[in-house]
Amino acid sequence: QVQLVESGGGLVQAGGSLRLSCAASGSGFSLNPMGWYRQAPGKQRELVASIVSSGKSTYADSVQGRFTISRDNAKKMVNLQMNSLKPEDTGVYYCNLKNIFTSHNYWGQGTQVTVSS
């Protein structure tokens, strides 16, 4: 069983930075792709960034060049460094792990990020 616990959210002014972390428990972490999603009030959850086992990452166009996703397989952690934050980055950020064998998605409880203008 996989459990994901996010941390690092908070309130920041536009132009500021935050670093989100996600700690995973369970086996097989290094094999599975990880991602960060966010959900703004009244909107659907959207993919922000993802990273596969090799370290290759992809980003939503809206965060390209400002956010960086990374993973530490030994520590079973995935991080999201968010720079030059904008008010439209506000939302609840969720850590995701997708099991490559079962395609089951695991989610953390979410962490709130609020960017004030």
Description of the structure:
The protein has 117 residues and is mostly beta strands. The protein contains no helices and eleven strands. The N and C termini lie far apart (40 Å).
Question: What descriptive keywords fit this protein?
Answer:
single chain, 117 residues, mainly beta, seven-stranded mixed β-sheet, four-stranded antiparallel β-sheet
Strand content: over 45%
Give the overall silhouette.
Answer: globular
**Number of E-state strands:** 11
- The structural class is mainly beta
* Main sheet: strands, sense, barrel: 7 strands, mixed
Mean pLDDT over all positions: 95
Percentage of residues assigned to helices:
under 10%
Unreliable runs:
none
Element-by-element helix/strand order? EEEEEEEEEEE
Radius of gyration equals: 13 Å
How many separate helices?
0
Oligomer: single chain
What gap, in angstroms, lies between the N and C termini? 40 Å
